[in-house]
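Q: What structure does this chain adopt?
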Amino acid sequence: MNTFKDDMPIYLQLRQQIEEQILARALKEEEQLKSLRVLAAEYRINPLTAGKAITALVDEGLLYQKRGIGVFVAPNAREMIIKSRKDSFTMAA
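A:
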């Protein structure tokens, strides 16, 4: 589906792409993500790599898991991403 750059780990690039989809509202709050196997097949990556990206987003609270059902976009995920990016921008300035 997408080509990945060599200058950054693939899982970080996938994580960034999912964040961008949330920001663009292509993924909405409470919307279910595709399964890890489907994501891995679409991006032509190892399922463990896709899982690492999803786990990082779950750990940050941007996604959450429903046992036996799947992974969903957390409420206020878009606002959390915006705030995080504002904070990192002001810290860098």
